[in-house]
Amino acid sequence: MKVRIAFSVMSRVEEPVLLVDEVLAVGDKGFREKCYARIEEMLSEGRTLFFVSHSERDLRRFCTRGLYLEGGRLLLDGPIDEVVERYNADQA
């Protein structure tokens, strides 16, 4: 319930830059779908989204650029598909 309230409040703040950290990892399907719709609405308004997730599907859905970090170091900054592919290759 706390995550739902936090996301609802955060998504209505009129800031140009937002940080969403694993918020979609919790909650039921209905909650996630509402979050997806709100994130897409914010992106269409031209807002910047820093989206932290382990969901490859969500990263590809919302991001055009990715940062691959390991141990506090930046390993790659590039197009999201390239970053996800590099991450997957490193994990294999």
TrEMBL record:
Which ranges form a coiled coil? Answer: none
The identity of this protein, by name, is ABC transporter ATP-binding protein
Question: Which InterPro entries would you find in this protein's record?
Answer: Bact_Polysacc_Export_ATP-bd, P-loop_NTPase
**Gene3D superfamilies on file:** P-loop containing nucleotide triphosphate hydrolases
